[in-house]
Write a sequence for this structure.
């Protein structure tokens, strides 16, 4: 079993419900259990600002799936939620699931990079991740709590 962290984001439709549904879908994966989930965060868009704000969260799971199997499952969950990957980057989406961390693994393969390559620059991922694992070491980047201190979190707010 491996502890992994999955980032969840949505800015189309009922985003809070979409994020909650993604947590349920993760809990339903074979050989996987949700350990805990962060609060939801309202965050400004990243990369492209001409879109609605996002709802983001991070889920910690314990899984027997390989990193590649887990990524395939995440893509299936996105598709089931209505996500269409059209090649555009950082645009609006009904659901975005990112494999942020997979144990202490460093993976660099076509279609899969772990830790997530932009994790250390994104407050919308680091804030909820810090709720779950502030002392977690991100391979090649540092401790989550230290990474949070280095990013601009203006406009991000924890939701009740």
């Amino acid at each position: 079993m491996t502890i992994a962290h999955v980032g969840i984001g949505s800015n189309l439709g009922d985003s809070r419900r979409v994020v909650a549904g993604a947590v349920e879908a993760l809990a339903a994966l074979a050989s996987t259990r949700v350990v805990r989930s962060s609060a939801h965060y309202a965050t400004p868009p990243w990369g492209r600002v001409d879109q609605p704000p996002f709802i983001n969260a991070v889920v910690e799971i314990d899984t027997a799936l390989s990193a590649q199997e887990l990524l395939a499952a995440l893509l299936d969950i996105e598709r089931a939620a209505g996500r269409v990957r059209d090649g555009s980057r950082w645009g609006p989406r009904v659901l975005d699931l990112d494999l942020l961390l997979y144990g202490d693994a460093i993976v660099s393969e076509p279609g899969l990079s772990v830790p997530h390559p932009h994790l250390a620059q994104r407050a919308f991922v680091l804030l909820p991740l810090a709720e779950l694992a502030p002392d977690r070491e991100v391979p090649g980047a540092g401790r989550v709590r230290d990474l949070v201190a280095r990013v601009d979190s203006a406009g991000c707010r924890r939701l009740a």
Observations:
- The two ends are 32 Å apart (CA to CA).
- The chain has one domain: 2-158.
- The mean pLDDT is 92.
- The longest strand covers residues 54-63.
